[in-house]
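Continuing from the previous page of notes. For each protein in this section, the sequence appears first, followed by its structure tokens. Read the first protein now.
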Amino acid sequence: MTAPTPALVELAVAHGVATEYWDWQGRHVQVTSEVVSAVLAALGVDASTPIKAADALAEYQVARWRRVLPATLVMREGWTPWFAVHLPHGSSAEVWVDLEDGGQRRDIPQQEHWVEPEWVDGVQTGEATFQLPGDLPLGYHRLCARIGNSPEIFTGTVIVTPKRLEPEKLQRTWGWVLQLYSVRSRRSWGIGDLHDLGDLAAWSANDLGAGFVLVNPLHAAETAGRMEPSPYLPASRRFGNPLYLRVEDIDEYGDLAPAERDRVRALSLQSRALNEDGTALDRDTVWAAKREALKLLFGVRPSIGRIAEYGSYCDREGHGLIDFATWAALADVHGPEWSKWPEELRDPASSAVVAFRNENPDAVEFHCWLQWQLDEQLGRVQARARNAGMSLGVMHDLAVGVHPDGADAWALQDVLASGIHVGAPPDAFNQQGQDWSQPPWRPDALAETGYAAWRDLVRAEMRHGGGLRIDHILGMFRLWWVTSPERPTEGTYVRYDHEALVGILVLEAARAGVVVVGEDLGTVEPWVRDYLTERGVLGTSVLWFERDAAGRPLAPERWRELCLATVTTHDLPPTAGYLAGDHVELRNRLGLLTRPVAEELEVDEADRDSWLNALRERHLLGDQDGDVERIVEALHRYVAHTPAKLVGVALTDAVGERRTQNQPGTTDEYPNWRIPLGGPDGDPVMIEDLPNNTRLRRLIGVLGH
């Protein structure tokens, strides 16, 4: 392992690759040349030898001179940025902007700004400087240029974003935080679904005064083979998981032939029996039953109105929907891992893929139809939530990335890095680092394509909700790229254009009327939270992590106002389990600790005791009160005393669940993302049980006091 040479450092910096950083314990870390070269290779830059690194740096420096216009310019409303136009020295340029609404702006003045010309590929090339006007409308526009009398028009993308959202105008409210698949009713098919979500939202708004319900990512998973249980490792983030469909809510259910309806009812009864299992959820068995039922419904001829609505949906989603459905249909035949498909099917634009689509139209259409049904049911859930009185309704959750063998990784190969994974460096709770096995965005490719894939994704996630949580929003600033799956510590940070990524997020949120919450936990550069606040993005505050500079529990009045405040998070046990130290015992059993368990338990006990003392100092807990239920209530009362605009309550805390839903750093060593909602004794808790749950009502009662 060697340190990077100065030339390699310069090349890395040019591509946003960190050659040094400070870890969670404040130690300076020098990234090895091997890691830096591997990350650059994933960006399409060969730095395997000093000579190749020097050549790559020279190529980078001349590349901007070969480009007439920048690929993408992102500006905030009111800004008047300068930009360069490269052209043969002595030539003139005509520059204008074609607006998103069909209009045009010709008032793009050239500025007096001399730049020495450069010889590029045997042509003396000059650089002219122009300025965009500050009153361009919000949206996505096309920057155009013509050189001299040439008929050729060069183009780039201009994105104008709002200065900020206005979360200060939010009325303070509370809401549930839950994993939908785990929250079942007696009519569920063994997995919590969108009808269950609508019922829970309507009851919570009407009876408890809830303003939102934050759910896990509902992204698409594999529909062939074993379904990935983690909602944070989806096949696609733009499209959804049909596992969450309530079959009986599909309009065509009423038009089934008697024999087919009987079969669907039999499948429903068979699946409902799984609701009695309180140990682990069985997605694959549930999906097999739902898929058979959905196939029967797909065969029902819809009305002319429904045909028109389906056509409108397909038109709106465009080729992205076709690509997704094609991947799903191919997965039905060849398995979900596209990297193992025949070579000719690994490229979504290949003639073999086109031929497959033409030869199997019904198979592709079925998966398009499933996404339409999801779109409809998601819309109904949000309508039910708002009609019942929720100020926000459903808050969706956007995962960091996608499965390396999923639909997005197949369809978006031009903007995703291959042969490398996203993860996280070591921190206090995951001391061996994390490999999330997800291919990262290529920042250069995003800019080249005008951030089209990011725009489509964000717009889709905001369509049927009042809020959007961004998991690991720090990834819009930098991401940890892992070069060795066996050793997540071997990696480094890669920078992203946060002004572009966050700006597009803010633009789409303003258009959709959606609140944005960024999960900004973990190793955070100090200026990042200030930037997000400046753009009107709410942060995330979790009680266990909120401490002052001296390490003491942060007084509630000192918490951020512009945040979603909770006691716990899905990567920790429910509060009852956390108070018992279950997370330490579990990590020790799984071999995830990097220090002796006795030392870890001592540190953990001291951490909990500091919070219990803080509760007692504020008279939220009696000196002799050690009852777990009372402590959980006191902790939530503490959060309720903060100025946070949004207060989240884990549904697991409300019913006394102890089992953790996810243990980072594991896959099948622990049944991650498969724990059904249960009470203190582990017995299943159904949605129908919630209105009469006294523990739940006492906990919600403390939020108003």
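Done with the first. The second protein uses the same format. Note its length before scrolling.
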Amino acid sequence: MKPLLTLFMKRGIFLLFIILNSGQLYAQKEIEIKRQNDKFNLLFKKSLSLDSSYQIKLTGVNPAHHILKVTAKSFELQTAQPEAFKDLLFLSGSLPPVGLKSDALLFTQASDISNYQDTLIGKMNRLEKLRKIADILYKQSKDTINKKSIDTAVDQISRLYGKLDTLPTLVGLDIHYINSSATYLAAYLLNNKNLNPDVANVLALSQYQTDQLKSKNYLEYAGYIISSNKLKDSGKKSLVSEPFITKKDLTEVRIILIDRYSKDTLYNNNQTFYNKGGSGISFSTGFFFTNGLTDNAYYLEKRSDGKMNIKTENKSRIDFSVGAFAQYYYKIDKMWRLGPGLGIAVSPFDGKPRYLVGLSTLIGKEKMVGVSTGIAWAKVKQLSGSVLNDNEGPFLPAETTTVPTFEKFRPNFFIGLTYNVVATRK
């Protein structure tokens, strides 16, 4: 029993550790963008941590007025190897409007037509009053929550429609009545042989009102007033997006701010955030400086005894070569990568390749400059084993005209300066 209890406790602690760490890993961090005088300023200037959860927070806005849309996509930077998104529609229903007798579709008296026309005009006027109330509220609280204006709007709506809770339903019924009237009045005239001019006038009125309904979203006005009332006491002056997870080398975030009332797009911009952490491979080209990897130039000098001394030309053995370097890096910061690499370079002086292994640092976001150092190997001419030596140095027998040599790989330090100016987001 005791061993089982111990095992359970160990696993419980391990599970708790995972839960706590996962909470830290995906704890949401905010990237703030401040709106001020219709200008948008990104206040977040740091790198994003890889595999972390972030949200866009837009401040200086009225949440009842604005809609924030954010989409994020992560990209990997690949350097080429060198050559070595409908508004809600309220559709007309199939039922006749209240007040119209669907069983007969008859107007028995002239007063019926007049009353029907008055009802249509009354409903349209009520919808227009709703729009005007919403317009005034919008103008008075465009960028901040105005409690006094909201209370005035709610009071006017209560006298116009009743309780605010039932406002969408009642507005929807008004819209349905007008839309259905146009359909049923047309059917009434079609099924009666004698044309009634008064009914035709009411039909024309209902069709005109239907066109008005297509150009104005009265349900949206109702929703705006309700949303404003809900946020009245919240004090909120910001919008927060859904979280997104950072991956790969960078995260491209599209931020769209829409005025939900006027439908205008106030802000539409792509922001690129560079991630820190994680590893990758980068290819770059550049120049590499070495010392001691060029061939010595030998010449022969005759001694007094006839033997031939082997002399070395006094020349600098520092040279540079042009080549490519591949780095496997870790991103310490958005601007700084560090890691091992290998490459190959060719000297323009002797055409021989230099094989490079070392450490490289890359500086930059997408266009990067690198500095590398390490060991380079190249084939260098060495004196042959047939060369003799004495106290005067290496020599050859008399009458020898050439210096025997062979090639051997030799190591030496190198310093490289590399760059890549083209990186593809994938």
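What the second structure shows: The chain has a mean pLDDT of 80. DSSP finds six helices and 21 strands in the chain. We return to this in next week's lecture.
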